Amino acid sequence: MKLVFFVVAIVASLLALSSADMYMQNPRGSNNRLNENSANRSTANRMFDSQNNNRGGYNVGDRTDKKAGNDQAKQYRMNYFQSGTYLTQVAPNGRTELTVEWTNQHGCGGNEDTDPHKQNCNIVLQYMCQDNSSDFAPDDGITIRAGSSTARSDYSRLSSASLKQAFINRRNSNTRADRGLNEPWVTYDDCTRRERNKGLFTATQQMANKNAAINTRQNRNGNRNGYECPEERDYYPYWHPTVWTDIAILAQNESLCSYYSAESFNSRAKGTCVEQFANNGGRKHFSEANNPAACAAANGVWTEYQSMLELAPQFTTPAACTADHQDGLTYAWGLPYDIVKINAFENIVPACFVRPPPVDCEAAPWSRSNHLGNGKDGVQLNYKWTLPYFPSMNSKRCILRIRYNISTDDYDPYDTDATNNAQSPVQENPLVQVGAAGQDLRLAINTAQFGRTFQDRGHPFTISPRPTGVSNTDHITNLNVRGKRGNIVQTFPATEYDYAPSRPKIEQGDLVHIQWTGSNSHNNGAPGGDGQTGDAGEGTGGTDRHNLLQSGNPDENFPLPIEKVTMFDGVTVGWVASGIDNLSAADIAVILASAGYYQCMETTKCGAEAVDTKAQLQNQLNNAPASFEGIMLRFNTPGTYYYLCTRNNNFTNRSQKG
User: Fold this and answer.
1) How many domains is the chain partitioned into structurally?
2) Same domain for 522 and 646?
3) Does residue 394 lie in a domain region?
4) What are phi and psi of 468, to 5 degrees?
5) Pairwise CA distance, residues 260 & 285, whole Å
6) Are residues 490 and 348 in the same domain?
7) 317 part of a folded domain
8) With helix as H, strand as E and coil as C, how does 103-164 read?
9) What's the average model confidence in pLDDT over 400-419?
10) Each residue of 266-291: b (16+ CB within 10 Å) or e?
11) Which residues does the annotated region (Disordered) include (predicted)?
12) pLDDT band, very low/low/confident/very high, at 92 (cuts 50, 70, 90)
């Protein structure tokens, strides 16, 4: 076991291995923002450690044309529909695809042998889901929420000898409904107590607390960021169970994929020490032990858990569980990593659960160093995520995160470990000789950042069962909007408005789910940090608004008159948020043109939401909602269709066309 642990420690150091930023553009990355009017975020450690510039990120969406304020129910959560069964994962049919877009500052991609880059890199995409709650923001320590305050959640540590009720009381007092939450309180409390992996290379960095997993080379002082565990954040694949499910690892070299696939928690069980509270108090959520020997010495049980998509409680025996259920999913009988039970201090018992699909691994897309922009092909760096299929048909509340890890070849990333710490191959700001007598030059090296992990996360979103009328084999493409209010300098390192993806290509009969979110507080005011403040744009200051109208060609800036619109001819509606039936092509056109302000043309069809009844839409969409809940259209007539946004498409200033 010691050898396996040692090997994991060595190889994991590859991903911990100087400075770059990572910003998710679609879905909109938060970079720890909530609803600030300022260009800078208010609290850099609110939810997670991004290592990013304070100016990055997007505010949480607002549901209406008013700010959500302290009412989280008035925030807008993007809602995507799950895939069909995994029987159809190889072919397009049955998949729901979401295009994840991002920018990373210091480059990535390129084959090490034939197309070397200036650094090594890996990009890791993961998500975390839980059953959606009818309470938008419960006052607990486990439910995902954006919060209504920009303050960080509280944390105060108890003695490990405390009884269970003391931990319950402390968790309940630390967590508040108005504070954002991703990882549960119990997993962070565990992280503060668990012994860190001492097989890792820490260079010249001295750990403030030599024993805890909150102390890493990149976070030697154990600084807290929400309830994120620093050791889990800084290394991949992680060697203990985690609440995150792997989507994809975009590797510097595809030759590494067999390793990542084998070590992913999606495929391999991970161990942790399970101890019990005194007086039959139930399962402890923590242990100081990080290996089987230390666990046995602490009178614990070293237990290996498996990652699960969700439980399958309808199957109560191993035989029933592992039978072929004809749905393409992999069911397993064993010990699932059930964070709900851990949060309730309950023992996890063998049960039937659905395994997540294997992590997707491919070469990282190429991007150049010192640049937050597009890749080689002129489009945003992206990955098409096939959303999961949940057989329970329960709606899920989720978070998406993306991590960007860069390293160098100045020391061997595979064979450099803790044994090299005493004589680290890299030192702080070393002097090098250049041949001239007595002449040294200083290098800029911070061993805490040589290499480094960056990340971004989106705001909470939901994944729902497919609605009636959308079959299990329908292919769904999501069409969204990226960017925020301001000119190219004011928005940086976010982007100006555009559709995402900007040029979707679909097959005849595919469904397109059109949906977007925006904020009413993107004022980009002071403090502006090291960038320009201001929110250049149309309409009411600080507000995001979008619509979609057909145009004739991509180089034209006028939409087609309604009588010449052909984009929606022959289109059938798979689903619409309003639930209105029998929408005509003209109804669809007016819904998208008005950002959902109007729901149809005539009162006889949609009552007070009709064009001929409702108060007039302001011509710059000021009274339209910031977020559009969506419509799903089945395009049946082949062709190329162009569209634009009337408010934001401003020739010579910004282009929002698709």
Assistant:
1) 3
2) yes
3) no
4) -60, 135
5) 28
6) no
7) yes
8) EECCCECCCCCCCCCCCEEEEEEEEEEEECCCCCCCCCCCCCECCCCCCCCCCCCCCCCCCH
9) 90
10) bbeebbbbbbbbeeeeebbbbbbbbb
11) 25-67, 518-556
12) low
Quote the pLDDT of residue 112. Answer: 66
Q: Would you call the peptide bond into 27 cis, given omega within 30 degrees of 0 as the criterion?
A: yes
**Three-state DSSP state, 516:** strand
Same domain, 300 and 350: no
| Residues 486 and 348 occupy one common structural domain | no
DSSP string computed for 557-592? -SBPPGGG--TTTT-EEEEETT---S--HHHHHHHH
Nearest Cα residue to 332 out of 360, 359, 304: 304
* Rounded distance between C-alpha atoms, residue 581 and residue 327, angstroms: 31
Long-range Cβ pairs for the range 209-216 (8 Å, 24+):
211/288, 213/290, 216/16
Mean pLDDT value of segment 422-437: 90
- Inside any domain, residue 610: yes
Q: Which of the residue ranges 274-278, 415-419, 538-542 would you say has the lowest mean pLDDT?
A: 415-419
**Backbone dihedral region of 574: left (phi > 0), alpha (psi from -120 to 50 degrees) or beta?**
alpha
pLDDT band for position 326 (cuts 50, 70, 90): confident
SS3 452: strand
Cα–Cα distance measured from residue 551 to residue 657, given in angstroms and rounded to the nearest whole number: 9
Domain membership of residue 619 as a residue range: 469-657
Please tell me whether residues 493 and 631 are part of one structural domain: yes
If you average pLDDT over every residue of the chain, what do you get? 92
**Residue 210: HSE in the Cβ half-sphere, 13 Å Cα cutoff:** 2
Contacts of 433 (CB under 8 A, 6+ apart): 439, 440
Task: Give residue 104's identity as a one-letter amino acid code.
Answer: N
Four-point Cα dihedral 315, 317, 320, 323, nearest 10: 110
Q: Where are the alpha helices (DSSP H) in 199-239?
A: 230-234
Listed residue (632, 625, 644, 650) closest to 76, CA to CA: 625
Q: Compute the distance between CA of residue 152 and CA of residue 431 in angstroms, rounded to an integer.
A: 40
Tokens of 248: 């994809």
